[in-house]
Amino acid sequence: MVATGVASASTLETVKQRGSVICGVSDGLPGFSMPDERANWTGIDVDTCRAIAAAVFGDPTKIQFRSLNARERFTALQSGEVDVLSRNTTWTLTRDASLGLNFTGVNYYDGQGFMVRASLGVKSPKELDGATVCIQAGTTTELNLADYFRANGMSYDALVFDTSDQTIQGFAANRCDVLTSDISQLAALRSKLDDPSSAVLLEELISKEPLGPVVRQGDDQWFNVVKWTLKAQINAEELGVTSANVDEMKSSENPEVQRLLGTSGDFGQHIGLSADWAYNIVKGVGNYGEMFERNVGPDTPLGLPRGMNNLWNNGGILYAPPIR
Questions:
Q1: CA–CA separation, 17 and 58 (whole Å)
Q2: Whole-angstrom Cα distance, residue 26 to residue 45?
Q3: Which H or E element spans position 186?
Q4: Where does the Solute-binding protein family 3/N-terminal domain lie (predicted)?
């Protein structure tokens, strides 16, 4: 009832009147959403939020961040505390169909894995029978772990924490033999260890974890704004449009680039935005590839490869419908 009542108002109009987008992010995950000592937030999920603000206002700084743990994230969105949830959240049927929420797309394709102490010499999750596992509460990770161990006839002892920071602290204090989560999150948490080389990420993944932004059901216009913000970034990368060359590309004769940047047609009107909405996204935040590389790519502490998160025509599965 609460979610329906909140969504019945126009979120886009509420956001415009307020002058900022309120975005729910994680309580601290390097590469995805993490504040520095000056409370400046960085990460893929943070950049997704800034891209939405750029689409709406032409200004990626018109954003407010709300730090949310896994237990409170959906309630915060349902109640209207935040306009959008961009918090390494897995898209599942139950979450999409029973919580009054809509997933708007995938900004990172992931999978659940395991991090173990290098000194244990473990090479496969199938060697973890009887292990004590550190895990975060309120996540799909708990369910996947139970399914995997049961399917392989193994047992484990779960040590459950409320936050991701608590899980890595438990691992660092030798309270568990292994930590399990999305592999990207494990890479982020390993970077927090005093000696990251003391921990190993096992290669085998045990689940599909499509992560992406979420909005309330019942407001199709806002759903489209958030959905097409991400798709504009993916299309921009495919078309070779970057934050560095976007002004030059406005004179491109490629009709796809012209439609993307608003120099031909006014496609923003269909979602309540200006004609240059996608130009503002790329100018202020960059295309998807830029967002990936600066936050989690090979030259960052996480050092993650593009893998599945590459474009469909470059060995990955990223694919966006056309703007036309």
A1: 15
A2: 9
A3: helix 183-190
A4: 20-249
Residue 313's Cβ-count burial label (10 Å; 0-12, 13-18, 19+) is exposed
- What residue type is assigned to position 147 of the chain? D
> Which tokens sit at 223?
């759903």
Distance (Å, whole) CA 320 – CA 228: 9
Which residues share a beta bridge with 210? 109
pTM score, whole prediction: 0.89
Q: What is the pLDDT along the chain (324 residues), one digit of tens a residue?
A: 444 444 456 999 999 999 999 999 998 889 999 998 888 999 999 999 999 999 999 999 999 999 998 889 999 999 999 999 999 999 999 999 999 999 999 999 999 999 999 999 999 999 999 999 999 988 889 899 999 999 999 999 999 998 888 999 999 999 999 999 999 989 989 988 999 999 999 989 999 999 999 999 999 999 999 999 999 999 999 999 999 999 999 999 999 999 999 999 999 999 999 999 999 999 999 999 999 999 999 999 888 999 999 999 999 999 999 999
Instruction: List the structure tokens of 109.
Output: 């394709």
Only one residue has tokens 């602290």, namely 169
The tokens of 102 are what? 């809509």
Rounded (10°) angle between helices 44-57 and 220-238 = 110
CA–CA gap between residue 34 and residue 302 (Å, rounded): 13
Using CA atoms, how far apart are residues 151 and 59, in angstroms rounded to an integer?
49
* Euclidean distance between CA atoms 258 and 111, whole angstroms: 36
